[in-house]
Amino acid sequence: MVKFSKQLEDQLVPEWKDVYCNYKELKKDVKRIKQGHLQLNVGSMIDPATAGTADTALQRSMQEYTSLENNINGHFSHTSSSYNKKQLAGAAVLVDEHGSEVLETELMEPLGKAEPHKVFFNHLDAQLNKINRFYKLKETEYIAQARRLERQLLALFEVQEALVARQTSLLSSQSSSKSTDSHSSSYCADESLGGKFDYCMHANVASSSKKKMMKKKRSCTQKLELTLSRIDIKDMCRNDVQIADRPSWSRSQHKFDLSKRKKKINSCEKMLCTAFIEFYRGLGLLKSYSSLNMVAFAKILKKYDKVTKRNLAPMYIKEVECSYFASSDKVTELMIKVEEIFTKHFSDNDRRKAMTLLRPMQQDGNHTTTFFLGIFAGWTVALLIVFLLILLTQNDYRTTGGKGYMETVFRVFSTLGLLLLHMYMYGWNVYAWEKTRINYGFIFEFSPGTELHYREVLLICTALSSMLLGTMIVHIIASTKEAPNYDGSDWVPLSITLVFLVMLLIPVNIFYKSSRYFFLRCFRRIIFAPFYKVVLSDFFLGDQLTSQVVSFRNVQFMLCYFSGGYFQRRDESACSDNTMFKLLTYMFSLLPYWWRFLQCLRRWKDEGDKLSLYNAGKYMSAMVAVVLTLAYVSYNTSALLVLFLLSSCCATLYQLYWDVVVDWGLLQQNSKNPWLRDNLILKRKYLYYISMWVNVLLRSLVWILLFLPLNVIPGFSQPAWEVIFAALEVIRRGLWNFYRLENEHLNNVGNFRAVKTVPLPFQEFEGGML
């Protein structure tokens, strides 16, 4: 049976963790009370000579507990003249000067040895008051958000009416004075909740009666005035350009304009649909928050009664049930209203479809996933052993089939291997995030229910690893048999590369299509960085690409090697001796840093945060260092050596500072955890210090040695060294990923952000809405 503390840890909202009932602290208080009982009983058993005195003390103690039970009801006192006390059944609720109700339980004398009980109830009161304050605050926020969605939906209805009216007038040959309102919609609001809302759609409403109804309902809800003359369908989604009256348009021009306007309205409708889904999700989290805390109070009071052999739980539970977070039903009513609205206006009255969107099912790891993960993991290990044995024992391969292998085909296989290693590191990241309750799905803004868990990620990795290793073994055998012509063996690495690309791009709902397309959308926004708003998932993926510089250079080689037909004779020097190829090396090596540089500039433009400019400077210094490093490798002059060392040191120090201080939020001088930060998720603090030093070591070592020619071990060529150091950089990036998301998660916890902020299609201002 799972303990409740574990259940609470698994089910709570991670971003609201600090405002839940601190069950562990209350459990410690009950444990101290239990230890007091045991010490009293043991003392009376050890010293028979003082048994009578001990019995008297025990009797006195039991009288005090009885007095505690008899006096807990209704015995409270004023702690300040600023409180107004009102009596409730079994408790006193004090209303402070700000209007907030505070429950305070004061135990009457004799308290003597009942001090642990007093501490317990003080902590219990503090937890209850904390939960009430937070619940009321979030409920107020959601009611205000409901009002905003109310006005947004009304604006959508009115622009839809305007579009229908214009379409009707275009099709009708009659006079413009004839009204066409057969598809008109009207709105009605229920002001009993203040922010509770309801929408009614009525068909076949006359124009005059519709205007009267709308006027009446606008005054009822005190909404912002919105008139059709102030709405431009073209400036939906914040284009902010008002339309001007255009005389004497042709019929084709009208149709084209209406088509564009219809697309804008559909886009606005999708934005509102997403906003309602996130709003409903937030309401569900708040309702879950209330239910979990109610169970926590019941569990801890039951444990208290079990230890003390008293029956105080029912009396305190009554006060908990009367408290604001347990008695308020506004959230439940809002959820019902959202379900009705969403079913009617966004799901074509299909409730099943609506509830599927509002309450998506979470993907739980099943036994099938675990079974195939074990199968593919076993295959991967076995194929890796076979591959290594072939390399070490087959002399024919080393003398014939392996000619030029490291300079040509190895680049293809190593690129796929580095990508798989990055996926393995991401799988480890997901495992660590899940174990530490870091809400990575919310941070990356995955669609609810589509995020992959670590088992799914590792299943993909092991399946692709088995495929890659099997292909490499087949290629080695084929190369040995075909040497020295290599007529068809080098089609094998090209084929496996194309298979990987097809599995990524295939538009069929297999191989976790939602996750593949999420990756492709992020990658598209990275490529066109200046033209898209940058979100966390975009620049997080951009940072991953900066750790795959070797893969980018290998992709450049693959384009030359296969497109030029050099793979048919395994000509390793055809690309490396090409002048254009050498120039493209600079471009492909700089691409990841250039994309991140543009992302930082776009974030600075959108948010006005100078920190983004400083971050752009970091990537600019990296680009300068890469250019000088490649120039030194090509020309090998003393001046370039000095410039290479200076630029590399500056870029490395810049990146190290940014990693630890900005991205991880560590090295805070005034932190209660020396040179770390105040809030830490990992309990073992030494892991943070080790991680910082590992990051420094790998960042410095990899950056300096990644581009330099190394031939220390005979037979161990430059491409092999590049792959080794690139693999170390990928491992370092995996370490960076965990602490980067930990810091982001703690920032969300500090601001209690648990749902996405969805932009609304219509801009509001004091006098109305656009």
In words, what does this structure look like?
This protein is mostly helical and 770 residues long. The chain has 25 helices and 5 strands. The chain has helices at 4-11, 23-46, 51-71, 115-171, 207-221, 251-308, 313-322, 324-327, 330-345, 351-358, 367-393, 395-401, 409-435, 440-443, 454-482, 491-505, 513-527, 536-546, 549-563, 573-576, 579-607, 610-635, 638-663, 686-705, 718-751, and strands at residues 84-88, 91-95, 101-103, 764-765, 768-769. It has a 3-stranded antiparallel β-sheet with strand order 1-2-3. Helix 17 crosses helix 18 and helix 23 (638-663) packs antiparallel against helix 24. The model is unreliable at 48-90 and 173-249 (pLDDT under 50).
Q: Count of DSSP helices?
A: 25
**Residue runs with pLDDT of under 50 for 5 or more positions:** 48-90, 173-249
Overall strand count? 5
Helix percent band = 55-70%
Q: Compute the average pLDDT.
A: 78
What general form does the structure show? globular
Structural class: mainly alpha
Mind describing the biggest β-sheet? 3 strands, antiparallel
Q: Order of strands side by side in the largest beta sheet?
A: 1-2-3
**Through-space gap between termini:** 56 Å
- SSE pattern, N- to C-terminal: HHHEEEHHHHHHHHHHHHHHHHHHHHHHEE
> Beta-strand level of the residues, as a percent range?
under 5%
Estimated radius of gyration:
34 Å
Domain SPX: 2-318
InterPro entries: EXS_C (IPR004342), PHO1_SPX (IPR034092), SPX_dom (IPR004331)
Pfam families: EXS (PF03124), SPX (PF03105)
Organism: Sphagnum troendelagicum
List the helices and strands and how they pair.
Elements: H1 4-11, H2 23-46, H3 51-71, E1 84-88, E2 91-95, E3 101-103, H4 115-171, H5 207-221, H6 251-308, H7 313-322, H8 324-327, H9 330-345, H10 351-358, H11 367-393, H12 395-401, H13 409-435, H14 440-443, H15 454-482, H16 491-505, H17 513-527, H18 536-546, H19 549-563, H20 573-576, H21 579-607, H22 610-635, H23 638-663, H24 686-705, H25 718-751, E4 764-765, E5 768-769
Antiparallel strand pairs: 1-2, 2-3, 4-5
Helix pairs in contact: 2-3, 2-4, 2-6, 4-6, 6-7, 6-9, 9-10, 11-15, 12-15, 13-15, 13-19, 13-25, 15-16, 17-18, 18-21, 19-21, 21-22, 22-23, 23-24, 24-25
